[in-house]
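>> Question from a student workshop board

For tomorrow's exercise we were told to take the sequence and the ligand below, predict the bound structure, and bring the output to class. My setup keeps failing. Could a helper post the expected result so I can at least see what it should look like? The ligand is magnesium ion.
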Amino acid sequence: MYSALHPAAVSGDGGIPEVANWPLQAGLCLGALPGAVPCARLHTKNVLHEWGLKALVDHAEVVVSELVTNALDASLSHASRSGLGEPPMPICFSLSSDGRTVVIQVWDASPEIPTAGSADSDADSGRGLVIVQALADTWNWYQPHNASGKVVWAAIGTKSQAAHRSTAYGGSAARPDGAGPE
Ligand SMILES: Nc1ncnc2c1ncn2[C@@H]1O[C@H](COP(=O)(O)OP(=O)(O)O)[C@@H](O)[C@H]1O
Ligand SMILES: [Mg+2]
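>> Workshop helper replied:
Here is what the output should look like for this input. Compare the format with yours to find the bug.
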């Protein structure tokens, strides 16, 4: 399962982020339990702090929550649909960074694919991927060639850096000491 997210498995075709050569890599598989979401969120926060990517933490935490929540739902539905009485498969997620952008990838065992709703919809559900779309520079999904299920991923970078600068320096992208952006 985790090998579906290993950097060696994610180079090449359409829909797959090309992060194999990025120097910063971390990953975790979690049981399909409600605690998976806060665990993934905390892990993301800790890893991004260690990588010196504090500006990406807020958006990355929200995106990880949405993607892991969806993966959890998908894993539980997939297990119950199979009717075999097997426990749901774990969820695996990885973080990859080149020092500026972080790519979040979340694998689950379900072959069902994500479908983003509309930003102007009044529906109570279907907002998670709209939020991902708003916070991420890009997002997509793919079926790994070496595992079943699929990976949903998002790249967090430019938008988060801009939001962080704007919050830190009162709406201006320039630093108050004139030294330019961080
Ligand atoms: N990992 C996933 N596996 C299967 N289906 C997914 C996955 N993520 C999202 N989806 C599908 O896309 C829809 C929209 O997801 P989302 O925007 O998060 O809204 P919500 O989770 O509230 O339904 C979900 O209802 C589901 O049908
Ligand atoms: Mg959702």
